[in-house]
Design a protein that fits this description.
With about 190 residues, the protein is of the alpha+beta class. Helix content is about 30%, strand content about 35%. It contains five helices and eight strands; from the N terminus they run ββαααβββαβαββ. An eight-stranded mixed β-sheet has the order 1-2-3-4-5-6-8-7, sandwiched between helices. α1 packs across α3.
C-alpha cells in the first residue's frame, strides 16, 4: 500500500496549503493545542508549554520518516501561520488502511476550513498512498467532527465501547469509515 515518498507532500486547495510542520511553528501549535475548548475531544490534556509543542513536532517528523503516517500543518494561503493539522496515522500497509485525525484553532471554526483540508488529505491518500479504507474515531459528544466526516461520505459503523482511557476514565468512540470506492473523484460532488 504505502507509496509514501521521502519528499513531504504539499497539498493545496482553494483556501489552504497543507505543509510540513517545522520547529519554527511551535508557537502556532502551542496556541491551539493549549486551548481547553480545542482539546476537549482530543484525547490528551492541553499543552502547558511551548516545549510540549516542540516535542510534538519531533513526533510528527518521526511519523513521516518511519512511514507510519503524515501530519500536515494547515495554513491559509498567503499566511505561513499553522492554524491546525490533519494526519494519517496507524497506517497498515498490508491492509491498505489508515486512520485520519484533524484539529483546528477555534478562531477558524465554522468556516469550512477543516473540511477543505480533510478532503484534500483524503484525496491524497486514495490517489497517492494507495489507501483503500480510511477510519476516523470520534467521541460521541464531538458533534462537529461527526458532521464533518459525514459530509465527506464517511459512514458510522458503530460504537467502540471503552475504547480509550483518558483522564481517569474510559471513553467510548464512534468508528467511521470511508472506502476509496465511496469517495467521488469528481470535485463537484462534495
Amino acid at each position: 500500500m504505502n507509496n509514501q515518498s521521502d519528499t513531504f507532500p504539499i497539498l493545496e486547495t482553494n483556501r489552504v496549503i497543507l505543509r510540513r510542520i517545522e520547529k519554527d511553528d511551535a508557537p502556532d501549535i502551542f496556541k491551539y493545542l493549549s486551548d481547553d475548548e480545542v482539546m476537549k475531544h482530543y484525547g490528551t490534556k492541553p499543552f502547558q508549554t511551548v516545549d510540549e509543542a516542540i516535542k510534538a513536532i519531533s513526533r510528527y517528523e518521526s511519523l513521516f520518516h518511519e512511514k507510519r503516517g503524515i501530519r500536515w500543518g494547515i495554513t491559509l494561503k498567503g499566511d505561513h501561520q499553522v492554524i491546525g493539522s490533519c494526519v494519517f496515522y496507524n497506517m497498515v500497509s498490508e491492509h491498505f488502511r489508515a486512520d485520519i485525525g484533524f484539529v483546528l484553532s477555534k478562531d477558524f471554526w465554522g468556516q469550512g476550513i477543516a473540511q477543505e483540508a480533510v478532503k484534500a488529505v483524503i484525496q491524497y491518500g486514495f490517489e497517492h498512498l494507495n489507501i483503500n479504507r480510511i477510519e476516523a474515531v470520534i467521541e460521541p459528544p464531538n458533534i462537529a467532527s461527526q458532521k464533518l466526516v459525514e459530509r465527506l461520505g464517511f459512514l458510522k459503523e458503530g460504537l467502540l465501547r471503552s475504547y480509550e482511557y483518558f483522564d481517569g476514565k474510559f471513553d467510548d468512540l464512534y468508528m467511521y469509515s470511508l472506502l476509496k470506492s465511496d469517495f467521488p473523484s469528481d470535485e463537484s460532488k462534495i
